[in-house]
Amino acid sequence: MAEVLVARPVNKTRKCGFVYITLLVLGLLFVIIGVILLFELKSIVHSDISKKIPIVNGSETYNDWVEPPVPVYMTFWVFDLVNADDFVNNGAKPILKEKGPYTYREYRPKEDIVFSKNDTLVSYREPKTYVFIPDMSVGKENDTFTTVNFPLLPTGNGSNDGVYTVYTGQENLTLYNEIYQWQNKSSLNYWTTPYCNMINGSVIRSLYVTFSKEETIKGITMYRFSPPPSVMQEPAENPDNIGFCTPDCLKSGVLNISTCRQGAPVIISQPHFYEGDESFVNAFEGLSPDAAKHATILDVEPVSKLFLKYDYIGLNSQLTIYTGAALNAAKKLQLNFYIRKLTTLVDTQHLQNNTVFPVVWLSESAEITDSQASEFKHKVIVPTQLSIILPWVIIAVGCLLIVIGLAILIYLLISADQSKQVCINMK
């Protein structure tokens, strides 16, 4: 029997062997690199972003901290008492007509800046200036309205709340811009309990927020937070608020701040007594609480884990903005006058005693511009998202290379086996 020799593609086989080995090695290398980056890259990106946040003299963050680039607006709506004569002379239910908005651009550059304790603390004053914006208002600054007669205690241009001392974040980033002292005091003396006298972002009272919902602002997904009802609940519903009873405890939804305002009978609440006791709303015609219009909001950017610090309760609140992370916030606050019958004043004889009378409500708001939103995406969101996505892409590419390499290996093994069978059969 004649012997038939089958030629084997030796060179081709060797080349394929080299290819599959290369693919397997590269694939394994990609997977290892991807796994390492999966645990390390996000930390590296966050570390790089975090280094830019602390208040350091001369840095971009410092300049934006001194003069925040995000425009801040103070907007007012006044309550016009339509039936003033009938209300005063006959004790009729007051009819209110809301007039507004009247909008001012707010400027509050920091002055008298002094660093201390190895630059871990910084002190400053923050004089406020307001410029009327006619295009964002329904009328003129000298428009008139009718309300009860009491001093609003306005603060004019150039006024400030005193000296703030805050953490720079250089030693501990989580303390960035947290108030260390106000007027050289680490606590207030307005209230009757240590909890209520804590200085957590405000020189009036402390406050906390809870998650509300997701929002999208200029193409950026945000987590929205708002103060829960418990913040302004009466002590019977929230015992932590017992220290705010000065001198008496009021119903839920309002706070007597006369102790902070030289004894002036000023009560603060959310606009239209939003989330307050129904009796406050029912005492007037013309009030209509609405969460969309009257709730204080705080928006947090969840991807980068950076957040907007917004100290927003009190008449002299402080708006603090992270460089590149301030997206949207609005403080909503209403000023009310506490009416009591006085035997010495004839005009009060027909009035309902202990009435919390709304005079004006305001919104102090800040939202980044389109260009600032674009810059924020470029500097923060894109690198952060890449730090999450890129490792998985590298791992996927590595797995694909390994699969292709294994496929070539299996093909070569099958081909070799078939070649052997052909030789045997021919023999």
Structural class: alpha+beta
**Total tally of structural domains:** 2
Q: List unreliable stretches of 5+ residues.
A: 1-8, 305-326
Let me know the number of strands: 16
- Tell me the β content: 15-25%
Mean pLDDT: 82
Helix content: 25-40%
Radius of gyration: 33 Å
> How are helices and strands ordered from N to C?
HHEHEEEEEEEEEEHHEEEEEH
Biggest beta sheet summary: 10 strands, antiparallel
Task: Report the total helices.
Answer: 6
Compute the separation of the termini in Å. Answer: 8 Å
Name the overall outline.
elongated
Describe this protein's structure.
It is a single chain. The protein is of the alpha+beta class and 427 residues long. The protein folds into two domains: 10-48 and 387-426; 71-368, no CATH class. It contains six helices and 16 strands. The protein has helices at 10-51, 60-66, 84-90, 278-282, 291-294, 370-426, and strands spanning 72-81, 96-107, 111-116, 121-125, 129-132, 164-167, 179-182, 210-217, 220-226, 254-256, 266-269, 297-300, 310-311, 318-319, 328-339, 355-367. Strands 1, 2, 5, 8, 9, 10, 11, 12, 15 and 16 form a ten-stranded antiparallel β-sheet that branches. A four-stranded antiparallel β-sheet has the order 3-4-6-7, with no helix packed on it. Strand 13 (310-311) and strand 14 (318-319) form a beta hairpin. Helix 1 packs antiparallel against helix 6 (370-426). The longest helix has 57 residues, at 370-426. The termini are close together.
